[in-house]
Each structure stands twice: as C-alpha cells, then as structure tokens.
Amino acid sequence: MDAVLRMRLLQIDTIHVVARSPYLVLFSRLGDYPPEWLEQALADGRLAECWAHEACFVTAADFPLHDAWRHRRGHHWSYRHAERMQREYPAEMRALLERIGQTGPVRSADFTREDRGAGGWWSWKPEKRWLEAWFALGELMVLRRERFQRVYDLAGRVRERLDPPDSGVASGLDEAGLRRHFIADTVRALGVVPARWIADYYRLRPQVTDQEMRPLLVDGEVLQVDVAGWDAPGYVHADHAGALAKALGGRLRATHTAVLSPFDPLVWDRQRLQGMFGFDYALECYVPAPKRQYGYFVLPILHRGALVGRLDAKAHRSKGEFEIKALYLEPGVDGDTRLADALADVLQRLADWHGTPTVRLTRTRPAAFARLLRGALANH
User: Fold this and answer.
1) Does 243 share its domain with 270?
2) Maximum Cα–Cα distance for the chain, whole Å?
C-alpha cells in the first residue's frame, strides 16, 4: 500500500511472460513479497480499479478524485468505445446491469461465446465489452479479482466497501482544482520533472506549462530547481525538500538495482526516459517478430540511478526455470564484476520469487559479460 501511495497508481496489464506487470512493479520496489497482497488489498477495499494513466489500481482515498475526473477523459479510447456500446446495445447493456443488481457480482467467464476472436476489445464476447463499458462509464467497479479475472459489481456497492470511505474532498473541487491536484501528485511521484512531462502521468489535456505551475510555486506546494542539461526549470514537490537538499549537496546516492516492467511508471514515458536517463525504449510485444530489435517483452535494468541495459526473459513455471534469452548492456556501460554481482543478485531473487529458481542465461551483449554474469549467478 505504501508503494502504491508513493507512485499514486499502479498500471494493470495481463501479459505474464514474466510476472504480470503490477506484481513486477511492486517486486522492483519491495523485493520478495507475497503476490496475494495485491488481490487482498483490492478485496478489502484499500485499493480500487479505475482508468488513470491507463487501467490502474489506485488507493481507496484517491478513487473519488479519479471518479470525479472521469467525465474529463472522453478523449480516451475506453470511453469512446463505452459510449459506442451504449448507443448500439442500450437494451442489452441495461439488462446486464439489472442482472448484476439483482443477482450479484459477475465475471466475464460467467458468459459463454461461440466464436473466437483474434484479440483486443472487438474480439471480446459481447458481455465482456458491455461489462468494460459500464466500468468505464462508472456504473460498475471491480469488487475483487479471481485468478486475475475481474469480478464486477455495481459501483455503489463497491464504493461502500472502500477503506477509507469517501472523505468528500473530490466533491469540493472543480475541474481546475482536480487538475491541480493531479499535477501536484505527479510532481510528488516523479521526484523532479519539467512541466512538459507532467501531463502524461494522468493523461491530462492540455499539456502542463510553466505558467500553470506558478500558483503551486507561490503557495509553496512545489519547488523550482535548475537541472543540468535541461532547457526548462524542474519542479520538486515540497514533500521532497529534504531529498532535494541532499541532492543539491551531493549527498543523495542511488544504491538500488532492479529489473523493471515495461509498464513501470519509471519507464512508460519515452520522452522522460530520453531526457532523464538518455534511454531509448519501446515495448515490442506488439511489433511483428522479424521487426523486433530486442525481444517480445524486454525489461529495462535500473542500476544505481541509471538505466544500464535491458533483458528479454521468460519464466517457465512448469520447469522451474527462469530463462534470460538475451541481456543487452547500453553502449558505454562498464560490464564489470560489480554490475554482474548486482544483476545476479536481483535476477536470482526475481527467479526465486517466481518459483523458477534455475536461471538459464543464453547470451549477452557484449558477449564477454556473459562469463562474468554466469560466474556471479553461480555464487548466488
């Protein structure tokens, strides 16, 4: 819960070549933890699901703010499709909603279909599309998950279970107040950020400008700093004043090594990745195999404050094997024993957490780094 609170949201994705993204994002920050914590927090009402950056878990305290902002997200594909469903299938959607009201929560799996689609929204069975439409429109919420499948119930019934309950703060904010809240939350979550990177976090429109940041500066909610190499001022939330003072004094040191999900908030904004880390990254699972540069589900590698490489991995759960198909270090990264030891430690812990304790390394770039990494893995 503390990790989600720091990030403000936790993006949901179902690809599980390694772990599904929300679990991996938490592992990157917490290390070995019981994955059922996430489902339990949702079932207990401490977390809720909604559209934020994309489909996300958010804290129960933040959910009313996102719900109040829902009407400003009409540009998003989920809302456009939901409105189309409502126009084209009004009777069927209403009947589905009435059924849930009368008989209780449902899963998409509770409905059968005769054909099989190729994937995506329009290949879903009709009831799945209608459930998702009502979810986007705010009439349904996710009560819990069973084997990661959503269990939907009427929003009013789920909201009654939220912990803490709605404080009423969202109802007291107009559109400008809500937008300012999300801007401040983004600055807090990202640490240091220029205005032009802020909007992507919550998919705000239009882009945030330095002029829009002035009231937050005047009120002391954010601090302004100059950042080497940036052509615009950076902003730091006042909550991080202590860390900022350490950074300015050269006393803030990065020590963490982690393998990151492609849907980690650290890496999902390509513009920020380039400007903050000099790292060019794109998820290639939707790219035809012959056109992929690195692999299907490639994970960035964070090491002591820098993105030093990426790896293409797959967890073979039935065999208890964690396969590293390829590991690529960034140009100029010194693939020394220190890096090999740090990577071996995090990779073995990740493999153990998956229940796939045997780590098999196929190749690295540069090739010579494979010997160092294999040696370090043998020591773990």
Assistant:
1) no
2) 65
